[in-house]
Specification:
alpha/beta; five-stranded parallel beta sheet; 4 helices; 39% helix; 16% strand
Length: 138
């Protein structure tokens, strides 16, 4: 017969239920997240949660060349130079939350302020892809 140690059984059991707890924590965090009207800065973990739950449109404000080298999945590339106080993002309602990023966060700050002036209601800057610890695609 097989002999199992209590430690192995406990470790196996915990590994099966821990992902469920992680999901509960994520859902609680999403429920408790308050979007601010106008421009705001959020953490990359908050942005990742919003992205995973399809709560935001993701805008990469780097150049096309930078974007082509790697970007967050489903991001739309709109370089900072093309964002003005009158910018209209195709197929994105002005009341739809927008999460923006660049390489380090500086250009995203400027882009975010321009988008708010253009009438977008919820613009969130989550910094730069240089510190993004989640998936990146080319």
């Amino acid at each position: 017969m097989f002999k199992f140690s209590k430690t192995l059984i406990l470790a196996t059991g915990l590994s099966l239920i821990m992902p469920a707890f992680a999901n509960i924590d994520s859902q609680d965090a999403l429920k408790n997240f308050q979007m601010q009207e106008g421009y705001s800065e959020i953490t990359q973990d908050q942005a990742h949660l919003l992205i995973q739950n399809d709560k935001v449109v993701i805008i990469d404000v780097r150049t096309k060349e930078e974007f082509d080298k790697g970007h967050i999945p489903n991001a739309i590339n709109i370089p900072l130079e093309s964002i003005t106080d009158t910018t209209v993002i195709e197929n994105v309602a002005k009341d739809k939350p927008v999460a923006i990023y660049c390489r380090s966060g500086r250009r995203a700050t400027e882009a975010g302020n321009r988008l708010v002036k253009a009438g977008y209601k919820n613009v969130m800057n989550f910094g730069g892809i240089s510190t993004w610890k989640y998936e990146i695609v080319q």
